[in-house]
Amino acid sequence: MTAPIAPIGAATPIAPIAPIADLSGTSATSAPGSGEDFASVLANGMQNLQNLQTKSSDLAVQAATGDLTDVHDYTIAAAEASLATQLTVAVRNKAVEAFNEIMRMQA
Prior knowledge:
The chain is an all-alpha fold. It has a domain at 37-107. 58% of the residues lie in helices and 0% in strands. It is built from two helices and no strands. Helix 1 (38-65) runs antiparallel to helix 2. The longest helix has 34 residues, at 71-104. The chain starts with 37 loop residues before the first helix and ends with a helix.
């Protein structure tokens, strides 16, 4: 005999999502007026992307040479690097689109 299915209300509530911390351990979101300008935010984002891609590449080499004990570490790192790259390309495309739209405006 199987156990009865618990109602949805009896499930453990889902915790709210906390701000994502970047690789340096600081919060990825910054409060308005925190003194961080757009150029530094962009540079930090590109550095984080580079770090993710480097980690993925290092784990790929370890997997190919047989030095990697847990293959899922490489799979996770590769997925993170891929998603970060896709996000960066999407943001770049939107920025170029916005710039082109501004250039088409009549003064």
